[in-house]
Write a structure and sequence with these properties.
It catalyses: dihydroxyacetone + phosphoenolpyruvate = dihydroxyacetone phosphate + pyruvate. This protein is α/β, with parallel strands linked by helices and 766 residues long. 42% of the residues lie in helices and 14% in strands. It starts with a strand and ends with a helix.
Amino acid sequence: MIGIVVVSHSRALADAAVGLAAEMVAEDKRPVIAVAAGLDATTFGTDAMAVSEAIGTADSPDGVLVLLDLGSAVLSAEMALEFVDPEVAARVRLTSAPLVEGLVAAVVTASTDASLDAVAAEAERGLVGKQDHLGVATAESAPVVEADRAVEVVVGNEHGLHARPAARLVGLVNGFDAVVTLTDLDTGKGPVDASSLSMVATLNAQQGHRLRVGASGTEAEAVLAAVENLAAENFGDAVVETTVPSPGGSGLDVALGPAVLAGAGVDLGAYVAGDNELLRLDDALATARDQLRELQDVHGDIFAAHLALLGDRKVLDDVRASITAGASAPTAWKQVYDGLAATFEGLDDPYQRERAQDVRAVRDRVLRLLVGVTAEAPTDGILVVPELDAATAATLDATRIAGIAVRAAGTTGHGVIVARSRGIPLITGIGDVDVPPGVVVFFDARTGSFEVAPDEDRVRATITEREGERTRAIADAEQPATTRDGRTIDVLVNVGVVQDAVDARGADGSGLVRTEVLFGDRRTAPTVDEQVDAFRAIARALGGRPITIRTWDIGGDKPLPFLPQDREANPFLGERGLRVFRRRPQLLRDQLEAVRRTAAETQVHVMFPMVTTADEVEWALQELGPRDGLEVGIMVEVPAAALRVSTLARDLDFVSIGTNDLTQYTTAADRTNAAVAPLADGLDPAVLQLIDHVVRNAGVRVAVCGDLASDPQAAVLLAALGVTELSAVGPQVPLVKAQLRQADLGRVDTAAVLAARDAAQVRGLL
């Protein structure tokens, strides 16, 4: 096997690149990789003598490939060849391949015992996958002929056939005497050479895509069987099973147990500063990066935000400057990150304010590493915290923690999202209630109640009842939601990521595909093809049932990184939803093209958010163009739209009521503001009267896709008012369907509900 040398001006860069490349292949198959980088751990530069020593370390009878970054790295490598034995120098190849991408490709190819020429060629093609993805023109590759003998496999990996699973596939293929090709049947890309990591990368195969694997040669049958087995094992990626809460969360909305208090912060009092605080910081940062990458592998891109915060160059420069001026590493780190958290908390945008949680989570992770303390995961009780960070939620033992009670309000924090995805019972916004450590507490997220020292017999009976409800509901999830008086209500799922559709049990389709969430982690706008791929994957996951795609809904609490907006004094009353695109429509036009293309293959509806006037509806329909059977609707989220719905819906097929915003605008209460959040209650009679008005006057099908549709009791009331389609969050779909099957809508006293004094009286009537 050939050896590899990495020459770089930066030791940190070289070590990180080697670490990334090493993850692509098993340890026992890795080539020897030697590093000659930096003049020391922190000083930039290259040293010809260090390069010559690295060549000696990596020397192999099969040859040595040297990858380098720029400038003097090339000169140092050339000079190093004069220092080594001529026989060794004769089998050394300097390559112009890109350092990071080339190294990854070289390590994967070398692990298959490929020749120096083959490894060098693959390294030099390292940028092809990235160039293809970004639409950068590249030299034409020789055409690949697809073999007659083939199998079809499906990419199950959440992030598609990314670097690690692609590397495993390439390594497998290169172990057989066969020529193997890959074709993405969903995009039409290919065939490409499956023995080349760069070529496999050009497919950009996403989760749910079908791949045709062709093979010819003496071991064609064997390699096809091996690829089928690898695909069945998720191409070696860990499978995160979220259909049932994992690992072991109850999935209930109630919890009982002793209070476990956390969130006191990291004690820096015992820290003793040393001679090299900068080195201590670098060591802590390296360990923190490793920890976060492990979390990201299991829990997805939520931890990408933490990694980005950890590597923010401006912030790190400020920390290092403070250390250089005499501060200890923990003090400097804490001061800078406290300031960054305060900056986030000062923003108008509620969603961005909640990102201060991420800043504090990264702050404390590094502080613990610097002072040498380990964060102990609480067990056997209800965790009571000021706020919930994603790392805590991800590392809790869900089989032992009874639940989580968060003092802060807000439901969009990353920690809340992770905890709910793991089925851990959770309540937010309990406020400053006094909770002594160890005292038994109980909460019911359905009613929003939190009790200290409750009547345990009473609350255990409630828990037993909820457990029975959930068990029966999941068992019957695929049955239609037909009420006792014979009305069938479609119960669908709200989708923000493809996994939501994969995990949904019993959903009759998706009543809301949140495109701003689906692509919200991107810094550049998705192409039409990328949007089509995502929509297809959602439709496939739901078995071809209808999906309702909401066009970009941004502004207020939902920014899009690739569509910056001007600062507004009151963003909730500013350019939100459809309003944004009247001045810059191209992004919407691309999305509508993706919707039309998807609708040609599967059942698709489209709806426009934040509509207020008939002129807006007319403009949106003009942008859409010919419908060709595509059903079109709007979101009813503001009182003005609800009151004039008969005018707005004249040329539509349906309307969907967004109860979250409709409630917020009707009650003039920000649902993320703990001081007024109780006013923003979807069961307020004023909100229900507007829903009733919409149902009676729309003249088209009426759906509800806000949080109210996820409340089983409220769902019965909505159906009694005449709503025929409910779109709920995934875990609630079986419960909503079960509650509807038990209901006789004719016996619901809707007149009394609409005339009720307040939301509390409505709940009493329900």
